[in-house]
Amino acid sequence: MSKVGNILGLDIGGANIKLSTSDGQYVRTIVFSMWSQYSELANTISKLLGEYQNSHGTPQALAITMTGELADCFQSKCDGVVHISNAVLEAAQGIDEIWFYKTGGDWCTARDAESQWPTLAASNWHAMAQYCGQAIPKGTHIVVDIGTTTTDIIPLSNGKVATEATDDISRLQQGQLVYCGVERTSLSSLVSDLLIDGIVTPVARELFATTLDTFLLTGEIPERPSDRNTADGHSVSKEAAHRRMARLICQCPELLSESQTQQMAQQTRNVVVQLLSSALRQVTSEMTLPVDSIIAVGQGTFLLSDIASGITIRQLHNLHPEGCDNLARIGPAFAVAVLLERHLRMNK
Questions:
Q1: What is the C-alpha separation between 219 and 52, in angstroms, rounded?
Q2: How does pLDDT run across 258-272, given as a tens digit for each residue?
Q3: DSSP 3-state percent helix, strand, coil across the chain (nearest 5)
């Protein structure tokens, strides 16, 4: 076993790769479109590790969790898990210990990835919940992780993950996985029509605009002018979001007023809130005790006061003694690094 310390966690998703050290002092996230860039995964991870090593030295161990295996570039989840684990091995040459997190809280090495793929696939939600449970070992709580693509709603009871749903389909069925996030969800998948100045207006069922445009226009997501990870490949800006919203209703941007765009943004925001509120109610209805608090994780924590009205909300960074404000955005990467550090300490 390695010495404990300098543990680096990686959360390899379908749209982003996130890194964090176990102390939360180093965090990094990049956009990575697995479905189109999967052949570049090993090289991308190698570059990320190189950046880390240049400033912090070689990590003593890597903790890996993933959700990117569901990308449609892979024939199956098993194929995706194997591809991701092999890419990590290729990229991490020179790092002595590489551990993959399994739903259930156990670990395995890359050579066991193929045989144990069902417990490695989509494991990041469990790592996040496991960390939160250890941080708040008493009471009844729910982790709500609102990401760019999906939302996880995970019950905790006295420090334990309190669900029998461990794979994607069972989690979808129980409301614990909602395929809606604050950036990548197509608006035409959420609404069939919108009211424009009181007139029912059907939307184009195309990938013309996403929830990113909604929250850019409401001001809840800041502009990122150099980022072009949008529906049309243009900037993450309010001006470009206005154009994308116009396209959603087959209108020319110059013929759509700012007031009309705001109507569209508020209506689609309301639909997201209703969808996530409904899922949260489904989860809480199955819990036998009142919920003491919601633990807020992810890019969409700004929605929680509307979704979880009347329930105390705790921020993830407040659970960590260092008080690192960026932890919510890279939660599972941080969580898996902390969990591996504790695992190595207990087994050294």
A1: 33
A2: 999 999 999 999 999
A3: 45, 20, 35
Cα(159)–Cα(178) distance, rounded to whole angstroms?
23
Neighbouring-strand partners of residue 217: none
CA dihedral sign, ordered 257, 214, 223, 46: negative
Prediction pTM value: 0.93
What fold does the segment set 7-137+327-347 form as a domain?
Answer: Nucleotidyltransferase; domain 5 (3.30.420)
Which among 8, 52, 12, 9 has a CA at the least distance from the CA of 32?
12
Tokens found for residue 42: 């090993």
What is the Rg, in whole angstroms, of the alpha carbon atoms belonging to the chain? 20
- Name residue 108's amino acid: C
Per-residue pLDDT tens for 162-185?
999 999 999 999 999 999 999 999
Q: How far apart are CA 30 and CA 15, in angstroms?
A: 9
Candidates 3.40.50.720, 3.40.605.10, 3.30.70.980, 3.30.420.190; CATH matching 187-274: 3.30.420.190
